[in-house]
Amino acid sequence: xxxxxxxxxxxxxxxxxxxxxxxxxxxxxxxxxxxxxxxxxxxxxxxxxxxxxxxxxxxxxxxxxxxxxxxxxxxxxxxxxxxxxxxxxxxxxxxxxxxxxxxxxxxxxxxxxxxxx
Length: 117
Known about the structure:
This protein is mainly alpha-helical and 117 residues long. It is built from 4 helices and 2 strands; from the N terminus they run αβαβαα. The radius of gyration is 24 Å and the shape is elongated. It starts with 35 loop residues before the first helix and ends in a 7-residue tail after the last helix.
């Protein structure tokens, strides 16, 4: 190479984002199913009652009352241990079940998952 001639490099020196946008994770939709992993995803790993980290997947309507309740993903809710014990304390009444169903709907709407209500 002589005087005044420069060598050119075709090396990328910084990140170039893709031309297409990334998926909007807030609007993602996963096919509902009764698995624990789906329930954890649905409630964003938080207790539906106190918003603390969730620890236990609970059935709203007891499994012993109907076998259909086991396979219904809308019957499952994520709770922390304290809220789960509070729900079962002194037995599960029909009023507690109604309150928990309403709590489930309100929580899902509040976190932007109204399509799962």
